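Subject: AbrB/SpoV domain-containing protein

B.,
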Amino acid sequence: MRVTEKGHVAMPKEIRDRLGIGRGSEVDFIASKAGAILLKIETGGADPVRTFDDWASRAQTTVDLGGMTTDDDIEWLRGQRDDLDAR
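Prediction pasted inline below.
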């Protein structure tokens, strides 16, 4: 995408549809060390997220691994290793 002289950016239709963004929707950009994150602002809900750290602190409690450890999770994703002696 290119930024116009006025600072406007055209968002691809596929992204707008996936995020439910339409005419009048509010979005924000959160600056991070790696670049920027587009954030759809939900009206009438909780306070809008304004920084990456704010977003990360809210998102970190949304995953429930059901007691799985990191090793369990990796094994679930990759399958059991067949290069280890099964003794």
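The beta strands are 26-32, 35-41.

T.
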